[in-house]
Specification:
By secondary structure, the protein is an alpha+beta fold. It contains 19 helices and 16 strands. A seven-stranded mixed beta sheet has the order 9-8-13-14-3-15-16, sandwiched between helices. One of its GO terms (cellular component) is bacterial nucleoid. One of its GO terms (molecular function) is ATP binding.
């Protein structure tokens, strides 16, 4: 299923108050009297697909211009996927696009029910529509589009070589960027490596152990207060067990006092169980005090003042404090820093090998790209000649018999995403004229015909689904106009074609005929769009031929045109 525009609603655009265009899949023409607003139809389609918003186009008295389009798309196709990617919806193959432009110049866009930047519509339009307006010939005037057009015409011959080049180019760019980073930051990375080596050297020399800082702190406290600790233990021991060197007159120790208390209670425990329980607890207290006293004696014996060991501990703590000050809040963080820094240093020290490896790969890719780019150039040069001849032949039948279209291919000094070729379409209006870029070598009407010729040439090579031409027949008439109609009908066999025209010879070839009618309401002109039946087409063609829709001669001529066009279309 090829996408196409099914319906367009226009409100408040130029002279158009409100109009609905129901479009056919094939060839649709839009006609109407001068000033009726035919070009506004093309303008509306351009806005719908991301065209530049001009607040001057908002209808006088209206707050804004609103364009809404319904497109039929393949739910599994690329266009639908782009809509799904932004969270939009495609229901039953129908995609709704909307665009508003306020009188103050503010512009908003909706795609599949979601608000989107206007640029999103432009991106989508690349897959769906090509608008060729008299003042807006954008598509094939861009160098990138011209290169893409030539590549599309080259077809399968270019597909595989171009894909291989693009893969090589992508890797070449990645390697180049990484190599540039490694070489330009070599000094910074060398300085970083020196800092890491120094730090790791300090830590390795000190050889700290996990938890060592806390253990040393405790030991330093003990050594610094050795006398006080020993005296405290001795005093406590004496209080509990007494001093064996003291005479009988010395105060009784805790063990003796508890023993006295226990003896007093034991002597009468048999008279009351409560007192017996207290006697047992006094016995336990005596055993506990005795054990504590023994441990205090052992502790007092173990505590020694050791100035040499204290100095060693303080010196070690000073070393660890220096490391902690530089590399972490404690020894554990210092060790963690060392582990991470060792890994980073290994990475940095491998840069030289990495640079050498990347340089070798970059050189190999450069050589490969040179060969692949040369192959692309060869194919494009051959395609350019065929393409120019085909377009020139079409222009001969489009009342431009002396015009020549050629393709200029020049080489860029640098590799690009699609090769080294810079492609430019050129046209010489007559044999004595030099080939000039399309936007300089052709007038507006001629440029439309060049675009038509190019699109006809592309007709068998996957054309854009919808083409819009604004007065592609400007400046021609007679037989040339018939040929334009014939070629538009040919293009419409593979795509949807919408054409604004003032020539009956062109309009006669259409599958659908829309007329923009204007009605005057005082000083306000309103336009609407009407779909014509066979009789209505004859009347409109008669008006276009003779200026009088009711002229019998004009009607006869119109009927003849329609019959001739039908016969010619059948032979296309």
């Amino acid at each position: 299923m090829r996408p196409r525009v099914e319906e367009v609603r226009i409100q408040g655009l130029g002279v158009i108050d409100e109009a609905v265009l129901e479009l056919s899949p094939g060839f649709t023409v839009v006609t109407g009297e001068t000033g009726a607003g035919k070009t506004m139809v093309v303008t509306g389609l351009g806005l719908l697909f991301g065209g530049r918003a001009d607040p001057a186009r908002v209808r006088p008295g209206a707050d804004k211009t609103t364009i809404e389009g319904t497109l039929l798309v393949d739910p599994a196709g690329r266009a639908a996927q782009q809509v799904f990617d932004i969270g939009g919806e495609v229901e039953d193959g129908e995609l709704i696009i909307s665009r508003t432009v306020s009188a103050e110049g503010r512009s908003r866009a909706w795609l599949g029910g979601r608000t989107v930047p206007v640029g999103t519509l432009t991106y989508l339009a690349e897959e769906l529509v090509a608008v060729h307006g008299q003042m807006d010939q954008q598509r094939l005037l861009q160098p990138g589009k011209q290169r893409a057009a030539l590549d599309r015409y080259a077809g399968d011959e270019l597909v595989k070589p171009l894909r291989a080049y693009e893969q090589s180019y992508k890797r070449h760019k990645q390697v180049g960027e990484l190599l540039a980073e490694l070489t330009t930051r070599a000094r910074e990375r060398a300085q970083e490596a020196d800092v890491l080596r120094f730090g790791l050297g300090e830590i390795e020399k000190a050889d700290p152990k996990a938890g060592e800082d806390a253990e040393l702190k405790e030991e330093a406290e003990r050594l610094s207060h050795a006398d006080a600790l020993r005296n405290a233990a001795t005093t406590a021991h004496t209080a509990l067990l007494g001093d064996p060197m003291s005479g009988p007159e010395a105060a009784q120790d805790a063990v003796s006092l508890v023993g006295t208390a226990r003896s007093a209670v034991e002597s009468v425990r048999e008279f009351d169980p409560v007192l017996g329980g207290l006697a047992d607890r006094l016995a336990e207290a005596g055993y506990l005090i005795n054990d504590v006293a023994t441990e205090l004696a052992a502790y007092a014996e173990s505590v020694e003042a050791d100035p040499a060991r204290l100095a060693a501990v303080q010196e070690r703590r000073s070393v660890l404090t220096g490391l902690v000050r530089k590399y972490g809040v404690d020894v554990a963080e210092v060790l963690d820093w060392a582990r991470k820094s060792a890994a980073r240093l290994t990475e940095l020290e491998g840069d030289d090998d990495r640079i050498e490896e990347l340089t070798r790969e970059h050189d190999e890719l450069t050589e490969r790209l040179t060969e692949q780019a040369g192959e692309l150039t060869r194919i494009r040069m051959g395609t350019a000649e065929r393409f120019g001849e085909a377009v020139t032949e079409e222009l001969t039948a489009l009342a431009m018999p002396h015009a020549r279209v050629s393709v200029e291919i020049t080489k860029s000094p640098d590799f690009g995403p699609h090769g080294v070729d810079e492609v430019e379409l050129r046209m010489a209006a007559h044999p004595a004229a030099p080939p000039l870029p399309l936007n300089k070598g052709a007038s507006g009407g001629e440029l439309s015909r060049v675009m038509l010729a190019i699109e006809v040439v592309f007709a068998g090579a996957d054309p854009v689904p919808t083409f819009v031409f604004d007065e592609v027949d400007a400046g021609v008439g007679g037989k040339a106009a018939v040929e334009i109609g014939r070629r538009l009908a040919k293009l419409a066999r593979t795509a949807q074609v919408i054409v604004v025209t003032h020539l009956p010879q062109v309009a006669a070839f259409a599958d659908q005929h829309l007329v923009v009618e204007k009605a005057s309401d005082g000083s306000i002109v309103r336009s609407g769009v009407v779909t014509l039946d066979r009789e209505g087409r004859a009347r409109e063609l008669s008006r276009m031929l003779a200026g009088l829709e009711d002229s019998e001669l004009g009607r006869a001529h119109a009927e003849e045109l329609l019959s001739l066009a039908a016969t010619a279309k059948a032979a296309v």
